[in-house]
Design goal:
There is one protein chain. By secondary structure, this protein is of the alpha/beta class. It contains 9 helices and 6 strands; from the N terminus they run H-H-E-E-H-H-E-H-E-H-H-E-H-E-H. The chain has a single domain, classed as SGNH hydrolase (Rossmann fold), CATH 3.40.50.1110. A 6-stranded mixed β-sheet has the order 1-3-2-4-5-6, with helices on both faces. The chain is globular and about 55 Å long. It starts with a helix and ends with a helix. The mean pLDDT is 93.
């Protein structure tokens, strides 16, 4: 999408964004423990961090959200004891996620899964600035928290969010695709970072009732896709 088109649509997009924010219900983060231990065998310390989709907005319980489901899958399929921790907050950009992690004392993990990006699009963070924040986040996790590998979830297909009107949905979707391409290109240059490939069922039945956040079917699909990605990495790079 050309910058000229985006500028021409600017007043309409701003109006739609303001109205959508006002009308969209504010859903709570999922209730329940944000740490846990599941499975038997050698220990894997798993960190899940990010924004509302990491925090489980759109479902009632953390058991229905991403972190707990992902830990269960990894423990069962890798035959490991997975000690997992969730650090997430609604509204965080990628840079905000790094600030959240830096404030956590004595944070240590072997593997990190980062779910951010939609708020970078919402806040109109340029893709290269968001990418610089991802790089800073990955470097901090490696150097300060001992993380061996950081897997980034891609931005979802925002162009398919039923809660967004057109043309706002179309423009935000184009921005999300640009952020994802920058993420994939950068991740390909590093052996300690990867970008998960996933296809999400974003029909209204699979999403929360606000049409913006995941519902339980989408969280289940995300957990499956991320687990498959991490298991493949483990097979390609055995300890």
């Amino acid at each position: 999408m050309s910058l000229t088109v985006k500028i021409a649509l600017g007043p309409l997009l701003l109006t739609q964004a303001v109205i959508t924010r006002r009308r969209m219900p504010r859903l709570p983060e999922a209730d329940g423990p944000r740490t846990g231990c599941v499975g038997k065998g050698p220990t894997l310390r798993l960190l899940i961090a990010g924004d509302s989709s990491a925090a489980g907005v759109g479902v009632v319980s953390q058991r229905q959200a991403l972190a707990s489901q992902l830990a269960d899958r990894l423990a069962a399929q890798l035959r490991l004891q997975v000690q997992w921790q969730l650090l997430a907050r609604s509204g965080l950009t990628t840079a905000g996620t790094l600030d959240l992690l830096r404030a956590e004392p004595l944070l240590q993990a072997d593997l990190a899964v980062i779910v951010t990006g939609v708020n970078d699009v919402v806040d109109q963070v340029p893709s290269q600035r968001a990418l610089a924040a991802r790089e800073a986040l990955a470097n901090w996790l490696r150097n300060a928290a001992g993380v061996r590998h950081v897997a980034f979830a891609p931005l979802p297909p925002v162009h398919a969010f039923p809660g967004l009107p057109q043309p706002l949905r179309w423009v935000a979707g184009a921005d999300a695709r640009r952020h994802n391409q920058a993420l994939r290109d950068w991740a390909a240059t590093r052996n300690d970072v990867s970008c998960v490939a996933m296809s999400l069922p974003l029909d209204p039945a699979g999403m929360a009732h606000d049409g913006f956040h995941p519902g339980e079917p989408v969280y289940r699909a995300c957990a499956d896709a991320i687990a498959t990605h991490l298991i493949k990495l483990d097979e390609e790079n055995p300890a």
